[in-house]
Specification:
Layout: E1 4-7, H1 14-25, E2 30-34, H2 42-46, E3 50-52, H3 58-68, E4 72-75, H4 81-86, H5 88-109, E5 112-114, E6 117-118, E7 129-131, H6 142-161, E8 165-166, E9 168-170, E10 172-174, H7 187-197, E11 201-203, E12 211-215, H8 216-228, E13 240-241, E14 245-247, H9 249-257, E15 265-267, H10 271-278, E16 283-284, H11 287-293, H12 301-316
Parallel strand pairs: 1-2, 1-4, 2-3, 4-5, 5-8, 6-9, 7-16, 9-13, 10-12, 11-15
Antiparallel strand pairs: 12-14
Length: 317
């Protein structure tokens, strides 16, 4: 039975991943790590152990790892893309110095480590359509820069020290349980909330801007499956392209209108988010993930839209 620490357990991904891991590996074997001011609540708090874990405090992390005999760490501590542009030094500290702490602890204490990368690791020189697994990565945002460095450092610790590092490049993630904060793809979550509330949605991303997206259940599935994958099959490690769908704002608007016919949307483009979006691929090629660990998403745009609206209607009733 694994003993797992989720760093950043109260964030967009962490709050749902913690609960999924507890269902799979027993409640007491998954520790929810958090920082003061972002305490767990609800099921995350009630269903299993939680500890203060500041990714920039190596001693604190090591104490938790020792106390719970942790053998697997999910590192979800990060500032999202738009937020990182407003606080680049803080983003670097959390995403890079924090990662180094976790890599060193994983090396010393023989832990496996998952630290997600992102579609943001690509840049304007990257091929935009069917972006290859191995291609040029020259991002223009601090978020993207830290993600490229994350991939390289994680591979370094695997090849030099044998640390079992694994990762995926997440596309934009869409969830009904928690609003994200500061991501370029956040519009694809916010639009559903507006639709269910009967509000007009003001879209910060320009018409015709395609980006890879994924429904949260598929993202959680990928995070678990990559860490369970047979290492003998893994040609790549840090990090695998994964995707489920690619769409532009008009397409998600039309998908919502199939469920809510009177939904309205207009555009007010945010230049910061748009500049980041324009530097990202339209769609990644995830064939390596499919070949090396049998990755396959379960949701597309219509099925995700139906599920999102159903759950959000229950929330707002």
């Amino acid at each position: 039975m694994k003993n797992i620490l989720v760093v950043g357990s109260t964030g967009q991904i962490g709050s749902e991943l913690t609960l999924k891991l507890r269902k799979l590996y027993h409640l007491d074997h998954v520790v929810a790590g958090y920082v003061p001011g972002a305490e767990p609540h609800g099921l995350v708090l009630e269903s299993g152990p939680s500890e203060i874990v500041d990714v920039c405090n190596a001693r604190q992390i090591a104490q938790v790892v020792d106390h719970y005999r942790i053998d697997t760490i999910y590192n979800l501590a990060a500032l999202l893309s738009a937020t990182a542009e407003r606080a680049p030094l803080r983003a670097w500290d959390i995403q890079m110095n924090g990662l180094l702490n976790l890599l060193e602890i994983s090396r010393e204490k023989h832990c496996a480590l998952f630290t997600p990368s992102s579609i943001g690791s690509f840049g304007p020189q990257t091929p935009r359509d069917d972006t290859p697994q191995d291609t040029i990565q020259r991002p223009t945002s601090m978020y993207g820069i830290t993600k490229v460095a994350t991939e390289l450092l994680s591979d370094y610790y695997f090849h030099k020290y044998g640390v079992d590092t694994r990762s995926v490049r997440f596309p934009g993630l869409i969830s009904y349980t928690k609003l994200p904060g500061g991501g370029t793809t956040d519009y694809a979550v916010e639009i559903y909330y507006s639709a269910v509330r009967g509000e007009e949605f003001v879209c910060p991303i320009a018409a015709g801007t395609y980006m890879d997206m994924m429904y949260m259940p598929d993202a959680l599935k990928a995070a678990v499956e990559i860490m369970e994958a047979d290492p003998a099959r893994l040609v790549h490690r840090n990090a695998f392209n994964i995707t489920a769908m690619s769409f532009e704002p008009g397409q998600i608007c039309e998908a919502i209108r199939q469920e809510i016919p009177d939904f309205r949307m207009r555009y007010e483009v945010d230049p910061v988010r748009q500049a980041i979006a324009d530097s990202w691929p339209n769609r990644m090629d995830d064939s390596c993930a499919r070949q090396e660990w049998d990755w396959k998403p379960e949701y597309d745009l219509p099925t995700m839209t139906q599920d999102m609206i159903q759950h959000l209607r229950q929330t707002f009733e």
